[in-house]
Amino acid sequence: MLSKRKAKKGLSGAVTALILVIASVIIALVVVGFAFGLFGAFGGTPTVSAVGSGVIYYSSGSGYAIITLKSSGSVEIVSAELAGTTYSGTAEVIGGSGSSSTLSAGVNTVSISFSQLPPLQSGSTYTISLALSDGATVQVSVIAQ
């Protein structure tokens, strides 16, 4: 009877317990990651918001704005418009790879070039409306310099 018992092979109780503890820790980390939004790529559409007010510079009928946006994921700026007008601009993420209008997760500095602008009053606050590739719109306040 004793020889049959020694012939059996398998995992010891300690190894089995260790495997279960490691699996439990991994599962707990995944659940916490999703709960706190650490896996933004799997969380659906990204959230984009303005960080403070930007500035807009005007010179001889044209100008540009510098704004800071915080994004929870990758999304493209499709269009930029001075709110309440028909004046539109082209957005470019500063420091991005090449000339791109795609926001990455985190804080992004964006330059918006306007080929035409009405005269802006220095010190006044204006709003720029940004349309994103996911269909969302973000309103950003800028102060004329």
UniProtKB/TrEMBL annotation:
Give the top-rank taxon of the lineage listed in the UniProt record for this protein. Archaea
Keywords per UniProt: Membrane, Transmembrane, Transmembrane helix
For this UniProt entry, which segments traverse the membrane?
12-42, 48-67
Checking Pfam families in the record gives: DUF973
Which protein, by its recorded name, is this?
A: DUF973 family protein
Q: What is the lineage of its organism?
A: Archaea, Thermoproteota, Thermoprotei, Sulfolobales, Sulfolobaceae
Whichever gene encodes this chain, its name is ST0141
